[in-house]
Structures
1.
Amino acid sequence: MTRESLDLPSPTFGLPVRPAPSPTRVEWRSQDRTFVLSVVNFGLACCSVEFLAAVQGRAEAMAAGTIDARARHAGVVTDDGPRTSIEVLVISGTCTDALAPAVKVLYDQMPEPKRVVSFGACSNTGGPYWDSYSVTKGIDQMIPVDVYVPGCPPRPEALLGALGELMRDHDDQRGSVTP
Amino acid sequence: MTRPDGVPAQGPVVSPRVHGVIALVEENCTSCMLCARECPDWCLYIESHTETVPATTPGGRDRSTHVLDRFAIDFSLCMYCGICIEVCPFDALHWSPESDYSEGSLLDLTHERTRLSGWRATPAADGPSDVREPPDPVSGS
C-alpha cells in the first residue's frame, strides 16, 4: 500500500501563510488605568487545552479567586480611565527545533509593548524532553520570557495568576520610570 | 458570595489531591535518595552527609545517621507524575493543591527545602472527603 493510496497529508516545509491568530482580550484594572491584554495562545501541545479552559470556561470566576483584578472577555470594556494595550504571547506546549523559527517569527511580528508567558514545563525548560534531540530546551533560548508558569500541565488558574504576575511587574517598572 | 460587579468572590473548588505542587516533610526524610532515583525527569536534588552518633551505653557501638543538606525540586522540569511521592517509604512528600507560583526567573522555580516545607501548610482544609492530612513527622530514629 503506497502513501498516496492512504490519502495521508503530505509533510510541508517552511512557514505556511496563515491568518493571524485571534487574541483573547483580557481587561486588567490597575490603580490608575485599565490595561487591555491581547493574549495570543501559541498552542504547541497539551498545555494549550489548559489555556482554553482558562480563557473560555469560567474565566471570570477563576480570575476572582486567583488574581486581584477582573479578567473579562472581549467586548466587555469599561469606560473609566485611560487604557493601555499590551500584547501577550503565551507559548503553551512542547516547542521542537523544527517549530522554533515559527515561534521567533510570531514574536518578532507582534507589536510593542509585548510580553511573553511560557506556559508549562516543556516551554520552560523542555520538561520531560530535556534530553531529547529534537525539542528546544526552553523557548527563552529564542525569545525573552517574562513569566514562567510551572506545571505539566499548569492549572488554568495558573495562567490567570501569571497574567497577574505580569501586570504587577509592569506596574513596578512603570512606577520606577514615572515617579 | 458575589462581589458588587457580579463576579463570584470564590475561586474554583479543586480537589485537595490535585497535582499542584509537592510539599516536603523534612523531618521524615532519611536522605534515602529513592525519590531522586525514581524521578523520570531527574528534577530532584538531594545532598546529605553522614554523622556519627556516639554510643549511649558502655560497650555499645557508634551509629551513623544521614543528615539532609539539600532537598530541592526543579518545578520548571517536574512533570508532576507523583512517582517521588508514591515511592517515598517515609511519607516525606505529599501533594499540595497550590498552583499559583509562576516566576519571572527560571531559577526561582527550583524550590529549596524551606520553600518545599512551606507548601505543607496549604492542603485545602475544607475540601471534599478525600482530604489527606499531611503525615505526622516520624518520631525517633
2.
Amino acid sequence: MISGRIAGRTTVALLVFAFALFYVLPFAGLVERAAEDGRTFELMKSDVALDALRLSLITSTVATVLAILLGTPVAHIIARRQFRGRSLANALIDLPIILPPTVAGVALLTAFGRRGLVGEPIEDLLGITFGFTTTAVVMAQLLVAGPFYVRAAIAGFESVSPDYERVASTLGAGEWRTFREVLLPLARSNLLAGIVLCWTRAMGELGATLLFAGNLRGETQTMPLAILQAFESRDLGLPGAIALSLMLITVALVILVALRLVTHRSAYEL
Amino acid sequence: MSFSFDASMHLGNFRYEAAFAADSELVVLFGHSGAGKSVTLQLFAGLMRPERGHIQLNGRVLTDTTARIHVRPPERHVGYVVQELALFPHMDVRQNIAFALDDRRGAAARKRVDGLLELLDLEGYGARMPRSLSGGQRQRVALARALAAATEILLLDEPFSALDESLREGLRGELLRLRRELGLPVLFVTHDLREAHLLADRLAIFDEGKLLQFGLRDDVFRRPASPRVATLTGVANLIPGRVLEAREGRLLLECAGMRLWCGPQPDAGCFRAGQAVVAAIRAELVNFTRHGEDHEFNHLQARVAEDLSYGAVHTIRLEATGRGPDLRAEIAARPHSVLGIKPGSVWTIELPPEDVHVMAAEANAS
C-alpha cells in the first residue's frame, strides 16, 4: 500500500520534472548563447531590431484594441441571444484558432489582396491597397489572434447569470449602463485573460503576416519576421535570431506579468 | 394602489394564460415549478412580452398588445427580487441599494439609502460587501434595493426558498411588517403551501401555465374551484359521487354507497340531480367520535389502516368497513392520545356537512 503510494508519487514527480526541464532548457540555452556572444547587446540596439520591436508593439496593440471593439458585441450576442445560426457562428469563431496561420494568410490574400474579392473593387474605387502594408499586418493579426479574445469574452459573459442584468434593468438601468456597470465588471477576469491571449498571439504572429503583408523592414517586418530573416541571413545568422528572440521574450514577459497583476487584483470572490 | 394583469402566450409545450387584479394586497402565486408563476412576474416586470395582454399599475398602462404598448423594464417602477437575489458582488451594500437611484451620489441619495438601511434593520452594514453577509442579511439588502426607486409593486420570486426554515420564519414576519408599513401591492411566488397560507391576502393557483383560481385566501382554501385546485391546495380527500337532491342551496350526495349532506354551497344552483360531482374535505376536518351514533347521513365506520406521527400531528389512513369512502384524516397529537387511536381500531367517522365542498367532476377525471 505505502510503497505503492510512494511509487505513484515518484512517477508524478519525475513527469513534472521532465516537463519543467523541457520548458526551461530551451530558454536556458537561449540565454546561455546570448551571454556567450559578445555582439548580443549590439544586435539588440540595431535599427533592424528596434524597428521590428516598435512595429510589433504597435500592430499587436492596435489589433488587440480592434479585437476588443469588434469582438465584444459579437461575444455578447452569442452569449446572450438565441438566434438561428448561433451555433454556426460560434463554430466559425474557432476556425482561425484551429487553422494554420498560413491558411489565414492565403485567405486574406484572396479577399483583400490586389486581385481579391473586395481588394480589387476597393483599389479600383478608392485607390487603396491593403497587401504589403502595415494595415495588412494588423489585419493578419486580427484574424489570427482576435478569436482568442472573442472566445474568452463569450465564456466571460456566459459565466455571469442573466439574473444580474434582468434585475439591473428593473432597477432603472438601461442596457448600456447595465453592460458597463454590471456585466463588464463581473466578466472582467475573463475579458482580461482574453486580452492577454489575443495580444501575445498577435505579437507572435508569423505565417499570415508573411503571406499577406510580406517582410518589409519598418513597414511589415514584425519581430517574428525579423527573427526568421536574421536566422536565414548570412551576416546575422543564429546570433541575430537569438538576440531578437531574447528581446521579444523580455518585452512579452514584462507586459504579461503587469497584466497578470492587474487581473489578479480584480479577481474578487463571488 | 392597484394593478390589473391579463396576459397569454405560448410557453414551450403549453399555453400560458392568467388574468387577475388586486389593490395593495399580498398576492401569493402558488403552484408547482414550471406552472407559470415566475413567468407572471417576468411579464409584469417587462422582461418578457406576452402575445396578447394588458397590464396596468396604478392607472399606468405597462403592457397593451392591441395598442402596441410595452413600457421597458427600467421605466416600470417594479421591485423585482429573484431567488438567487443577484446582489452585485462588486458593489458594497450601499452601492447595491443606490444602484436604483437616479442620482447616486447626492445628499438625497445618502438619506434615502440610510432610510432603507434602517427600515430593513441593516444599519452599520452599508460598507459591507455582499459575500460577507449572512443569508438573511443578503435577503434584506435585496429587498432594500428593490424598494429604493419609486417602486410601486414588489415582485418576489421565491425569495426565501434558499434559506433555512428558521430564517425563513423571521423573514416572513419581516415581509408582513414591511407590507403594512409601505402599503404596496406584492406578488409573491412560492411552492410552499404553508408559506402561501401564512402570507397571502389573495391566492392565485397556477398549474401548467394557467391561472386556475384567484381569490381571497380562505375562499380558495375552503372552496377550490376544481378538483385540481383542491389537490394543489392540499385537500386530501376527493370523493367522487352523484347528486341525489339539490334544494334550497343544500346538496345531498351519494358517495361510495354513503349519503352525504353538504352545507350551503355558493354555487348550489349549478348542480342537478344525477350529476357527477366530487366532494372535497380536508384531512384535518375529518372527525373521530368515540361512541358516535351512526346516522344515516355523513357517518361511516372505518378502521385505522395507517397512523403516521409527525410530532404535533398524526396523519391517518382510514379504510371504510361498510359503506362510504376510504379517507385520510389529520388529528393533533393531544386528541389523538386522549381518544386512544390505535392501528386497527374501528371508529365512527363524521364528515361535517359544513366542511364538505362540492365541485363538478372534471371531464377527464375518472
